[in-house]
Write a structure and sequence with these properties.
about 450 residues, mainly beta, 7-stranded antiparallel sheet, about 40% strand
Length: about 450
Amino acid sequence: MQPGWSTRNGGKYYNHFWGNKGYGASVNNAIISENGMTTGIAAGGEMQLSQYSLTLRKTDLNHQSIKNNYALFRLYDKDMQKCADFMTDADGKLLLDGLSRYIRNGTEETGIYYLKEIDAPNGYELSTRIYKIVINAQEKILFGEKGPAGNEDANLQEVTAGTHPEIPNRKLYSVRLRKTDEAGNAKKGARFRLQNVAAGYDMTTPAAKDVSEFVFYNLKPSAADYVLTEEETPDGYVPLPSAITFKVNADGSILCTSAPDPAVYKTELKEDERVFEMTVINKKMAGFRVRKVSDHGNKVLGGAIFVLTPIAPTAGSEIVKVTSYGSGSAYFEKLTPGQYRLSERQAPTGYYKSHVTYLVEVDASGNLSVKEEPYLTPVNSEISSIPMLNFSIVNEKERKSALPFTGGGGRAVFGYSGLLLMLTSGLLLAKDPARSLLGKVGGIRGRVR
């Protein structure tokens, strides 16, 4: 008494339908097919076993068949005991065959079944509905969603020949991410992770360096937040400063629960596609340019050595840069958030070293500021085509005196000093001429002696 089973019309079964029911041996069973339903006619005997089939159609909420995306259903008997599992075919059709109506000793016992979806098509919400199938005494098949207790048949309708009742699924939400820079240009090399522990969802995008768009499928309604984090960031750009969180409510609406920040991310819900679009913006990592110039004519100076030192607890090693001889510039780029101190380690040849230091600060969003110490006077950026903070540090040229009689200003100094000494001696002699004469006589007298 166990019907033979096979794959029929693309629908697949997973288990045998019934085991041996132990019916009487006096059974004469003939099978014919009519109008898409299968009926059985028995001649004589105590029991007549009739078999019927029912074809259903898996659709979305717009009544479109869900094709090439399989769903799995379980069929139960009237006591909610499992009969078999069936799968939709490539066209989205679900064939249930082998359904029976029993007649024993002239008393009708109508066939009653229940149908439940146990695995939804990919990207669709699993239906919680239970459907009821009734094959009545007039050999009509009735189908519909199971009604409330005491009125289970409230939604049943007769299935006419050639019709396929729909079993609808609501499409689940997906999140489509797009990674860009501040100018809206696509940026590749990011990795994202979306988690919701309560909903059993944890997905990380592949490590693909040539992709700028990502999709997370099958987001189920949940009272808990979905949490999006950036696991890897495109080279030279600031990571997402904090997680982006949102909720998928039971009614299908999506609510962003993290603080809005248009400079970091933008969202758009496309309800007709059941897609939550999100653009995640990465700022270029903080950086600045320092230019070394002379106090004589604003001449650019190469060969100056600058050091940028992280201030605890900012991690990292000191960064050493030398100004170029062409532009007098040194660039400090890809700075992670934290505090740094900029100082001049060595001045250009022929110039005094600057002893001024600068406090450099980078916040979590990649914004950079430079302040001159000790009064923390903000440094204003100079006008430049370089898209980062630019400022100049002036060096004073060394001033050295020349040796006497080698030319230059040193010889003039000694000449003026001698002239001043001669004038002073002349004034003293003019005041006492007698002393001057005696001195001379005495001198002659002495040298002669």
